Amino acid sequence: MNSGAGPKRIENVVVVGGGTAGWMTAAGLASMLGSTGLSVTLVESEAIGIVGVGEATLPHIKFFNDTIGVDEAEFMRATNATFKLGIEFVNWGRKGDSYIHPFGEFGLPNEGVAFHQYWRKFADAPGVGPLEDYSLPVVACRGAKFQPPSDDPRSVLSTYRYAYQFDALKYAPFMRTHAEARGVSRVEGKVVDVVLDGESGDIGSITLEDGQSISGDLFIDCTGFFGLLIEQALQTGYDEWTKWLPCDRAVAVPCEHMGPLLPYTRATAEEAGWRWRIPLQHRTGNGHVYSSAFISDDDAQETLVRNLEGPALADPRLLRFVTGKRRKLWNRNCVAVGLSGGFLEPLESTSIYLIQEGITKLLELFPVDAENNVEREEYNRRMDLEFDRIRDFLILHYHATERDDSEFWNYMRTMNVPDTLKERMELFAATGHVSSYDHGLFLIPSWIAVLIGQRRLPDAYDLRVNQASDSDVAAQLSGLRRHMAKAVASMSGHADYLTKNAMIERAL
Ligand SMILES: Cc1cc2nc3c(=O)[nH]c(=O)nc-3n(C[C@H](O)[C@H](O)[C@H](O)COP(=O)(O)OP(=O)(O)OC[C@H]3O[C@@H](n4cnc5c(N)ncnc54)[C@H](O)[C@@H]3O)c2cc1C
User: Which of 228, 339, 394 to mutate to test the pocket of ligand 1 (most atoms within 8 A of CB)?
Assistant: First the structure.
């Protein structure tokens, strides 16, 4: 016990696990709190290895990389990364449909009224065209173009952000070099025991297979699906969301890259799940995420292999998971970051984002007193909100469908969804309005992309649209559409941009 007058400072943080979550956490803590004298130790077992999937990201990762001082070109080369402007969804509303969820705006708001409200009224007017023609990143995706956004807020080239697609096996080692350069100590070894303090119930130390004992003030569980500390030792509990997100397996295989280098991930809906296609510099990542209640492993693998664009580069790998989240992401003196905290399936590339949010919120709420983590409740409240919102957005993709060609789609289309999602869908259906979140994922353009992309056109539009004359608005829309197309035509091709900026490991 601390017998001194003031709070006992956290001096030692022990991160258990060296996957993407572990090394990102270690790098983040050492970069931001290393100067306070905090010591960070990371324990990992090469014999156990990492999950090794997780190749598509969201734009927030650039902020993380920038904050810890990562050089973008070096990172792109080291992880064979490509740029990502959004995700294409194929066959989701109906078979044969395709839309892109972009990392950016649709059009420009006018008189405080969202752009899609004008588009809704004039969608059938001559020269107006589909909503996606008013999203610069979507037009760029369709043309395999890329350049970073402009700093000039008046330019349409400033209306988007970008993320990366990278080799999942290379990002954690890349983070490791950054973390170790900032003073993180790495210990190789398998944790075989977690010792709890009899009095407080907190974790006191971990024991490795070779008998070494490592103690700490705060433990970060980054042991992936094992949940070694948060679950096996602290028995925190897990809220399953499988009734809404029933996909529970994935089979993954890389293949040779064919065709132009696309700046986006593709998610193609299948009979009982969906397939991903992630273009990297040196290969294409592929996977089939499915519900084992609706399709066998053999059939799922056959669907994946049949659809590969080029020769497979490895044997298919099967992964199992249960969608949901740990009841408390922070329990006692243990914070679960990464797959140990939960998994919501990879449809919108949200896992690495949740790792980053876990780290950012931990830094904001870093305990002042090692013996009384009052910050814990607020951390859990904020992380719960992140998970709940992502859950709703993911369910939307499956539920807002007209597909009735398999048992899986019939289930997804007709199931009861959480009230929070139901209310958002009803509001949009009636008025075209999306209520905004103060912060976090996903913002209004994301909801519009999916709802309109999956044929959920609202019954009405914002009445303020009627203030402008019809001919003016239709002319402005078609003018903006031409302007977007022209701006994209001036952008570099995606592969050319990587080459010109020395971001490729070898010639494409
Ligand atoms: C099918 C699938 C597709 C995915 N796609 C995406 C995607 O496109 N985008 C995205 O953002 N995320 C994706 N994810 C999630 C992403 O893979 C993870 O969020 C990310 O890799 C982080 O994993 P992790 O570090 O939590 O766990 P892991 O990579 O499993 O690392 C666990 C670490 O703990 C160590 N460990 C475990 N037990 C012990 C022990 N007893 N002693 C010592 N060390 C131990 C292991 O050695 C390893 O170092 C996907 C996940 C799956 C399953």
Answer: 339
Residue nearest to atom 35 of ligand 1 (CA): 17
Structure confidence by residue, pLDDT tens digits, 401-435 = 999 999 999 999 999 999 999 999 999 999 999 98
* Residue 377 Cα to ligand 1 middle (Å): 25
8 Å CB contact between 272 and 291: yes
**pLDDT at residue 323 is higher than 90:** yes
Q: Partners of 207 in the beta sheet?
A: 193, 213
Q: What is the DSSP pairing of strand 82-84 with strand 163-165?
A: antiparallel
Active site residue 84: yes
Q: Determine phi and psi for 229, rounding to 5 degrees.
A: -90, -50
**Contact of 380 with 230, CB cutoff 8 Å:** no
Mean pLDDT over 336-346 rounds to 97
Q: Is the peptide bond before 442 cis (omega within 30 degrees of 0)?
A: yes
Give the ligand 1 atom nearest the CA of 287: 1
What pLDDT sits at residue 5? 64
Instruction: Determine the Cα–Cα distance for residues 225 and 92; give it in Å rounded to an integer.
Output: 29
Tell me how far apart the alpha carbons of residues 239 and 247 are, in angstroms, rounded to a whole number. 15
- The chain-wide mean pLDDT, for the chain, equals 94
d(CA 207, CA 215): 9
For residues 181 and 30, the answer to whether their CB atoms sit within 8 Å is no
Q: DSSP for 217-259?
A: SEEEE--GGG-IIIIIIT---EEE-TTTS---EEEEEEE---S
Per-residue pLDDT, averaged over 12-20, amounts to 97
* pTM score above 0.85: yes
Cβ atoms of 261 and 495 within 8 Å: the answer is yes
| Percent of the chain at pLDDT exceeding 70 | 98
- Give the C-alpha separation, 442 to 34, whole Å: 32
